[in-house]
Amino acid sequence: MNHLTPENLYHTGFVVQDLDEAARTMSKALGYRWTKPATGNERPVVYADGTRTTVRLNYCYSIDSPHLELIEAVPGTPWALKGGSIHHLGYWVDDLVAASAELALAGFPLVVCAADDEGNYPARFAHHEGPDGAYIELVERSVFGKPFDEWLSTSPRFESD
């Protein structure tokens, strides 16, 4: 059963040094509008070797499609700067555990994923590394609590200069 299909690709992610500057630059150059930068909750994550820690990500999404996600770099994590290339392709999945296992069997090893409040994982999202170093991010469709486009349309906007 193939959990990853083109119609479930919903964004392309970039890790950037400065979130506000990257959003301003992409607005000027490419005409994108952005959600207001947000700081996520400190989230427990589990690395492939079993190491557990927490991470807090600063991010924003483009309101315009095709959707882009900007994530402020977090040194020493999979969200560190890797030379300015595309960081990940984000896919919606309905069954994160099954999709993650399937992707690992296809040669894309699990690198890091979120854990739920009881410590079970993967939960909410999982990052798998492709042969070229870019990640595939699997995200449970229910993460935003409403359809993504509706979430974007009600999110505070980033005002560029």
UniProtKB/TrEMBL annotation:
The lineage of its organism: Bacteria, Bacillati, Actinomycetota, Actinomycetes, Micrococcales. It comes from Gulosibacter chungangensis. Residues 8-141 form the VOC domain. Pfam families: Glyoxalase_4. This is VOC family protein.
